[in-house]
Amino acid sequence: MSSFDEKVALRSFQEISKLLSSTMELPEILNYILEEITRVLGLKGGTIRLVSPKTNTLEWMASVGVSRKYVEKGAVDLDKSVAEAMTGTPVLVLDAGNDPRMQYPKQAREEGIASMLTIPMKARGGKVIGVMRLVTSEPRQFTMDEVDFACAVGELGAQAITNARMFEELTKELKYFKGMVDVAKFW
């Protein structure tokens, strides 16, 4: 059983919030988020995967405390892997190695994953753009405070992802318009 420390969680949340305005790259921010949440909640590790509408899968973005083999186990299908998280609700799987909602229960057992808490990462407007999966090596029932903290951190992660996507789009538009100005100079 965990002992959730609200002061430690608040300090961690504040540090993660500061990163959103930093110059760190998105993968670094997401890895830091996972490192912090696993430290604060005393977890084995976690992953962050983003929704790919083209393939209807969750694509890997970051991970901490799980093996490369586990991360690369195969495509994570939205419809086969704890699908209810895509509705915006956190999902707890107490026995990851035997739960029918798990797409890869055998790989979870091999990785030593007992329980998994899947946190939807919601962008503005509540649209789920990805999931943060938090895993334990022992069966664990998370407290409401822990779930609330994980959801708040998940929203910060979603904000970082949204900001990075907007920055990338603006950069592309800026390059396009600079190209147009360069072409116009020759006329």
Automatic annotation (TrEMBL):
InterPro entries: GAF, GAF-like_dom_sf. It comes from Syntrophobacter fumaroxidans (strain DSM 10017 / MPOB). It comes from the Bacteria. Residues 25-171 form the GAF domain. This is Putative GAF sensor protein.
